Amino acid sequence: MTDLNAVYTYVDEHAEEYIAQLQKMLNQPSIAAQGVGMTEMAAMVQQDMDALGFETEQYDTRGGFPVVYGEKAGKADKTLVFYDHYDVQPADPLDLWTSDPWSGEIRDGKIWARGVADNKGNIAARFAAIDAWQKIVGELPLNLKFIIEGEEEIGSMHLQNFIDDHNDLCQADACIWEFGGRDIDDRPQIHLGLKGICYVELRVSGARRDWHSSQATSIPNPAWRLVWALSTLKGPDDRILIPGFYDKVKAATEAELQALENLPDTEQILLDDAQIPGFINGLTGMELKLKDYFEPTCTISGLLSGYTEKGQKTVLPSKAMAKIDMRLVADQDPHEIYALLRKHLNDNGFTDIESELVGAGYPSRTSLDAPIARVVAETYEEVFGQEPVIYPTSSGSGPWYQLCDAFGIDAATAGVGNGYSQAHAPDENINVEDYILGIKHIVAIMDRFAQSEG
Amino acid sequence: MTDLNAVYTYVDEHAEEYIAQLQKMLNQPSIAAQGVGMTEMAAMVQQDMDALGFETEQYDTRGGFPVVYGEKAGKADKTLVFYDHYDVQPADPLDLWTSDPWSGEIRDGKIWARGVADNKGNIAARFAAIDAWQKIVGELPLNLKFIIEGEEEIGSMHLQNFIDDHNDLCQADACIWEFGGRDIDDRPQIHLGLKGICYVELRVSGARRDWHSSQATSIPNPAWRLVWALSTLKGPDDRILIPGFYDKVKAATEAELQALENLPDTEQILLDDAQIPGFINGLTGMELKLKDYFEPTCTISGLLSGYTEKGQKTVLPSKAMAKIDMRLVADQDPHEIYALLRKHLNDNGFTDIESELVGAGYPSRTSLDAPIARVVAETYEEVFGQEPVIYPTSSGSGPWYQLCDAFGIDAATAGVGNGYSQAHAPDENINVEDYILGIKHIVAIMDRFAQSEG
Fold this sequence. Notes:
The structure is a homodimer of 454-residue chains.
Chain A: H1 4-13, H2 15-26, H3 38-51, E1 55-59, E2 67-72, E3 76-85, E4 105-107, E5 110-112, H4 116-136, E6 142-149, H5 159-165, H6 167-170, E7 174-177, E8 181-182, E9 188-191, E10 193-194, E11 196-205, E12 211-212, H7 222-231, H8 254-262, H9 267-274, H10 285-294, E13 299-306, E14 315-316, E15 319-328, H11 334-347, E16 354-361, E17 364-365, H12 371-384, E18 389-391, H13 400-403, E19 410-413, E20 429-431, H14 432-451
Parallel strand pairs in A: 3-6, 3-7, 7-19, 9-18
Antiparallel strand pairs in A: 1-2, 2-6, 4-5, 5-20, 8-9, 10-17, 11-15, 11-16, 12-14, 13-15
Helix pairs in contact in A: 1-4, 1-14, 2-4, 4-14, 12-14
């Protein structure tokens, strides 16, 4: 039995060193959207893994930034993979930052920087945990892998190429996902999946150019065609009307329903933040939670036609466009959903409406009973001293299905963020204390998962 | 009995002089939208009327460009008013003009200039007709008035102020409207009215800012609210569904139906120009003509919500907007129509949708039997040697109702344009021959209307 307390003590004694290692990463901008600092950051991550004794390699992704891969064998015949990303969001708008977004300044018990929560703080905590383990215990308790991509913030566009080229490298028994941490009430959260997405653009054309609206008696109006088509997709009761749309929706299990019951009540916080009088259909409580986590959506994300500036222009538009964002739940297939949508349009006489599948992502869901789910939950409670809140899925998105479900790998989130970390926004931050606890949490996860059954 | 031939001969002999007078007007830019040359143009028009012996005045319109008014008494106890405008459209894009838009160059039997068709050619032709009449006959055959405004091309925004302030000046027995001429088959056209308009902007709000689309399970989407509301206004059969919308639509009379039968068949020209396979509901022939001239419309002129650029943005919009352009026919009232629309939205649960009446104009229609309609038609045939095509209404718009219907004044169009005059576009032009014929046409109208009964 490994004495984790000795490792924890080492972490505490070397906290400054581990914070400095994180700050070194934070000082290096790595903005995929702008192509800034990506080569330097990939090299830094690789060197840090090299220093831990990992066999590392940067894998070309055929058109995108490379995946930094590392692996090291350990005692148990079990493999845990960490999925992370070395790219971050742009720091704009810069004038809304209290300190330089690339400084990693420590202030008020927090570390402030672009990417500190999403997700350099997690990369550094994982490296620190391995370092501490190796310093105190020696051999790793199980085989470890890192898949650290460089395009998470721009949609993981080339990750599938890496996966296709290196199926063998992706094999593992479980995965720790890239994000995680505390909620706004400071309780640790675990997410066990992501919703999928089917993002479609609809386009309609009429006359070859905008026409004088007096001709609206005879020339078809693409804006009307679009409105009529859209109104067949979902009614005011919010029920999606595409035949077959709900067929593959998996009902929540008893355990998942129980998990929903345990979720904190954040309704009023959201109502206040959004400044709306109530939710769709007046839903609250369990009905709302079920809808949030176990029901798909069909959202108009964009609408455009004709004249949209101030005042009056008497125009009959020549074009109309809508963007439709459908969030999918297990086991909906985005390509099947797109085909159902297309068939529905055709069956309703809207063959004139062009459609394009702009983005497709599969929903993912790890069982609440999966060993990694139990290990992350139990160790959260041990290390953070608080029972975690378990979300059967997350409203966020990412390549979870591709990296995990597709390989039969269970996954869970664990991280050093919190409810006010402001990922993607100015003044992104984490608590110094959570960073240290997060290191210990990874130590405990490695130890416990190595011993787990199944 | 006046010998019109003597007047016509004088016109022919002084054609160069009358062309020069038109060119003088064409050389003076007068762009209301840009405030260019308006004072100079108003002064020129006033001086030209002074030279004809009219009592003239520039009337302030409380915020807009002045109305140039003129009147002169004649033999018969009858008054004919000419409605014109001294402003023109901007000349942009300049590089698409073959000659300087302000030169009035004569080339290929045409006069080329911004405003020559719309409507300085008509102003000059009316002045020339009066000049020739006075030179040959002496006393005018009837009382004449000119109401020449300076804001027609920018929506006649302040004309109502002039009308309200000077009701007495607006009284007349008939009106010759500002536009007119030949169609694309060179046949003279007469229009006997305009459609009205009710232009409404609809706005919907959701959360206080755009939200992540994952929250679409709970936060209402204003784009959906708008689509659902719009889909209750008109169905795919193009029938407008607002209760009461059609109640005041006046059926075409037998004479109007006959006039429609006589309209030229321009369907294929429009299909080719618009590059569409067919018209709404596959209409053709009389059904289409009836819809074009005797039915109102409800057109989406603009739609905007959320993300409308390239690719995928997973956003739940906070706002949505639509612009609705309703063309009205006699005797629909734009303010009543707006009230019906508002009531319909409320009755269907869309009280959350804000509406604003952006523009309102009444439909106008002069009877085919009105003396001025008959006079213009008969004299067209006499002077141009071709039977005119009579349109019971026009698809264009303007302050016809305000100046005519509101005072019980019958009106008809007569002018010097043609089917290729390119009003509002580069290389605007009229035929020199039509200008001379147009002068004679006004001579004949004055003579004949002075003698007409009723």
